[in-house]
């Protein structure tokens, strides 16, 4: 559904928003899965028909992060903005979900925020959209509150019989089922970040790895060792077969913080400070604490052998 970039504008406060008619698509859009894309497509069609801009209105941080300190996002805010721009969204209204917004009655949310501040002349929401104090406002209530402004309520989006939601995507990521995640997202799942200095333990085994810096509130796939492919963000067509460790490193230290580090096969260049992306993940094994570094080294060599064989078969050239 990618339509190409069009200089999308992002507003981080109410006072930044120009006073002009627009179509609003409302939701969290974490992951921007196929269900989210269906909402945005409907908003795009409505905006084209009315001849006015399309705005996605969302909250960041989301309200879930206020209630649950351990809440993790499927995608970074930076990645979300890039994908929204690819979907031909003209504007994004993205502000923190705070106490003032949380306490707005549904009527005030619809009247003051949507109609007055954001100048909505058309609205698109999912069937399960809620709004206002204690989420008392439901999607159908919005239809009544903003009449005669047109409101499209999009039914549940199903893929292979599964109703899609960000919750389902999170469950699949925790299971390490990246292939199914990609089916529901409708685009390749990837992790991108700056290459930073690590502990350099990989160099001791002659398998130097690239440590990727990622937001701490980003949900990572199931901890383990994966076969996958990597590319530098400024050279997306140059792909490197890789073995990627996601999670902790219990043989090396007892740090509970999960990291992502990749060994790029047949690659030998300093890429510190560059942006590296990991994609096409295939789970090989779980995280294991080995009794010694020689055992760890042997396991790493086996991982590389398994990863190389899998990737060579998976991506062998077409004859």
From TrEMBL:
Pfam families: FAD_syn, Flavokinase
GO molecular function, one term: riboflavin kinase activity
EC number(s) per entry: 2.7.1.26, 2.7.7.2
Keyword terms of this UniProt record: ATP-binding, FAD, Flavoprotein, FMN, Kinase, Multifunctional enzyme, Nucleotide-binding, Nucleotidyltransferase, Transferase
Chain ranges of the Riboflavin kinase domain: 184-312
Pathway: Cofactor biosynthesis; FAD biosynthesis; FAD from FMN: step 1/1; Cofactor biosynthesis; FMN biosynthesis; FMN from riboflavin (ATP route): step 1/1
Gene3D superfamilies, alphabetized: HUPs, Riboflavin kinase-like
Enzymatic reactions: FMN + ATP + H(+) = FAD + diphosphate; riboflavin + ATP = FMN + ADP + H(+)
Family indicated by similarity: Belongs to the ribF family.
Name by which UniProt lists this protein: Riboflavin biosynthesis protein
Gene name in the database record: ribF
